[in-house]
Every structure is written in C-alpha cells, then in structure tokens.
Amino acid sequence: MINVDENIYLERYAREISYLADVKDNNIRNAFRIVPRSRFIPQRKDYMLAEIYSDDVIPLKISDGKLSSSSSQPSLMAYMLERAEISPGDNVLEIGTATGYDTAIISAIVGSKGRVTSIEYDEMLAGVAKDILRSNGYDNCLVISDDGGKGYPPNAPYDEIVVTVGIYDLTRELLKQLKERGRIVAPFIYYCGESTPLFKLQRKGNILRGRFLLDSIFIHAKGRIGTPEYDIRKYMEKCKNEFGKKIVHASSLSREVYNRDFLLYLSLTEDSAIFDGKVLYVLDDKYGLLQISKALVILYGDEVLLKRLEYAARQYKVNRIHLNNLELTLFPKGTSAEIKGDFIVKRKDFVHAFTSAPTSRGNA
C-alpha cells in the first residue's frame, strides 16, 4: 500500500518526469505514476520523500571510493524508454538492473502479456532487486546476475534492449538476441569527457544503424561490454624510466582538453586516447605516454607523440564534428559488408562507423 502522503508526491513526480522528458506515451506516464520509487531505495530512511520523488540520481553503492551503482535520473530513463518504443506485450532485455526500479517501470509498460529480463553484473545488487521485485508483485520480471554482454538467450529474441550503463562496445550475442528491426538504446563510451553519448540503434540484418540522441552520464559497465583495463600509473612509471619526464606549457592541447567535441574527435582518430574525466592520456607502445590536463601537458616519451596530438588539434579545427549530428552504424567485425563512414573505430566485436547527418531530422 502507498500511503496518502507518498501518493501525493508520486502523482506530482509522475507529472514532473513526463514534462521534463516530454513524454507522449501514456503507458510510460502511467508507469511512473504507479511504481513507487521509494520501494527501490534500500537506504530510503536516509531520504525525505521529496528527495526520492525528484528528478535526481540517488547513489546506491560506492566501491573503492567511487560511485558504482545508482538509481538513474528518472527523466532520462523516461526519455530512453520512449525512444526505445516499448509497448504493451513486448519482450525487453535490460542491462544494468541496480535495485530494479527501471525494471519495474518497464514491467508496468509491457504489462502482464510482456516480459522483462534484466541483467546485473553486481551479484549483491541483483539479489536486492530480485527480492524487491518479487515482494512487490512484479511477476513478469527475471533478474540475472551475470555479464550483460552475454545477454540471456533463453528469453530471446527481444523487441528492445535498454542499457543503463556506459558501454565500450556491444557483443555478437546481443545482436543475435535482438529481433529483426528491434531497437537498442544505449550510452556509449567514446572518451569525450564524462559524457557517455546516448544512441538509438535498429537492427537491419547483421547491422545496427541509428543516431545520437543526447548527452548523458552513466556509470561505466564492467565485463565484456565495459572498457579495457589500463593500469595508467604502472604504464606511466615504465615510460618515465624509459623516456624521462618533460612538462610542456601553453600547448594548444591543454586548451582543448575539456572540449567535448574535440575529445570525441580524438577518440575517433586516436585508438590509444583515454579520458578519465579529468585528464586525457594518450598511450603508445613505441612513443610513450602523453598526459594532458587543462593546466599543462606532461610528456613521458618521444616528442613525436606531442606533435601528433597537436596535429590532431589543428585537423579538428578544419574538420569539426559535433555529437548532435552524428549517425552511427555498427558492423560485426569480419563482415563482408562494405564499411563506409567519416570516422571508423574498431572495437572488440564491432566496427563503429560514424557519419555526419543534417540536424533537422531531430532525435526521435
């Protein structure tokens, strides 16, 4: 039972989320009205109802001093679900369960004739989500504790796949488990600052094609769809011992380091560029390591590396790109299809091909 006070907050909250996300789908509007967010906040006693029923991210778990799980921003979730075009009766795969709030929202949208399978990498959180969903009567939900990159073949094929963690790449397994013309809405990691750009992709044969939706910030996934592991400190020490350390002042690179679109350009043209939210690193087995912050540039390597990056900064000014008008096509590695694009990025399972498109088409 939802008490009278909470119901007042819930009604107001649902209207606010629908307004902020410009939700047109009544099924989504209704889902936010009938699913109490408070049930999915284990530490809810630490929050006032006004905080729970707001358009704010709520931290759920901190690991090694970093936020490792959260209850996502509600208006962003509403936006993603509408772009995914989830309908009653659909079979949906969610990657990134957390404590199950978004899972419950999807459950309410698809209804009793639909089904939600949700995968959570963190075993503890998956257990919490299972208990909350079960005790609150969400019988059309299945929570799996596993690597999201595997998907869940027993419940495939899926009409939609919704990803609520930043991913480095998709996997062939996920492609196989998506229906023809099925949709994926997911935030991708392209090292353009803290942003994990959100894309909507649709399956056409063995190709996924779509476009940029909006900027978003999501916790990065772990496992096969997460970023490759780099021990920056260890690599830095190795390069320092081999090449020494040189501080470069007033580099054009330091002025560009917080420019989102330049970081995106660098990510698409330099395979070894890594941005941790504060500092940009460029790793090269032959030439060493370049560390770029807003204040200065530090080189642990050959100056060839610095010149290469300064050249990239000049090229960016000539060939500017903007997230807002990027289309993205994902080709499975080894495909016989002709791969075309303004920028080609090869990742573990897929080749990401970017092309610029007119902005007038909108983000639908």
Can you offer a commentary on this structure?
- The protein has 364 residues and is α+β, with helices and mostly antiparallel strands.
- The chain has 2 domains: 4-225, Vaccinia Virus protein VP39 (Rossmann fold, 3-Layer(aba) Sandwich), CATH 3.40.50.150; 232-318, no CATH class.
- It is 31% helix and 27% strand.
- It contains 11 helices and 17 strands.
- It has helices at residues 4-20, 26-34, 49-52, 74-84, 101-110, 123-135, 172-177, 232-243, 252-256, 260-269, 303-318; strands spanning 58-63, 66-71, 91-95, 115-120, 141-145, 158-163, 178-187, 198-204, 207-214, 246-248, 273-275, 280-284, 288-292, 297-301, 326-332, 343-346, 350-356.
- The strands form 3 sheets. Strands 5-4-3-6-7-8-9-15-17-16 form a 10-stranded mixed sheet. A 5-stranded antiparallel sheet has the order 10-14-13-12-11.
- Strand 8 (198-204) and strand 9 (207-214) form a beta hairpin.
- It is globular and about 65 Å long.
Relevant terms:
five-stranded antiparallel beta sheet; 17 strands; 364 residues; ten-stranded mixed beta sheet; Rossmann fold; 2 domains; alpha+beta; globular
